[in-house]
Design goal:
alpha/beta, 3-stranded mixed beta sheet
Length: 170
């Protein structure tokens, strides 16, 4: 069976239209997913993140109480630098960091992973650090292309089954 150029043009036009619709739908779903994502921390470039240990934290932790303003888990972007500023009267630790009273220490986060670090300023004695790659425009476009191309292929075939192109009468 030979397809005439005019008929091929109809197939190509339909496929491009279906591809355009698929890209728009995949983009909308991707953006909605990002909008409703619980952790919006990764949709940004790497930066310096400061964590302050307030005065009186050692006393609260010794009493088994949570320190005010100190989370048990934090999420970072690959390349972030965590700066821990100690305003307490005691020396504290976070993983490899030793933070004397009245000073600060930095932890570059250059490895993607879920870390559980010992922590002297948390009642549970540990802090979870999650390091993820940033959600960039490139990441979003790759996700859209992974969804749009197969969707377009399926929709194109379905469109031919439901609304077949009429062959030119001989």
């Amino acid at each position: 069976m030979r397809i005439e150029p005019k008929e091929a043009q109809k197939y190509l036009t339909r496929f491009l239209l279906v591809l355009l619709v698929s890209v728009l739908v995949a983009w909308m779903i991707s953006e909605l997913g990002l909008l409703f994502q619980h952790d919006k921390n990764t949709a940004r470039p790497p930066q310096q993140v400061e964590l302050v240990i307030p005065a009186g934290t050692a006393d609260k932790v010794a009493a088994g109480e949570p320190a005010p303003g100190i989370p048990s888990e934090m999420t970072f972007v690959l390349g972030d630098v965590l700066v821990v500023r100690n305003q307490d009267s005691e020396t504290h630790t976070l993983g490899p960091l030793l933070i004397p009273a009245g000073s600060s220490a930095s932890l570059p986060l250059n490895e993607e992973d879920n870390f559980s670090m010992t922590c002297s300023f948390n009642a549970s004695s540990y802090m979870g650090l999650t390091v993820r790659p940033p959600t960039t425009l490139r990441t979003r476009l790759v996700g859209i292309s992974f969804a749009a191309v197969p969707t377009a292929g399926m929709l194109f075939v379905y469109s031919l089954l439901i609304f077949p192109l009429k062959p030119k009468a001989a």
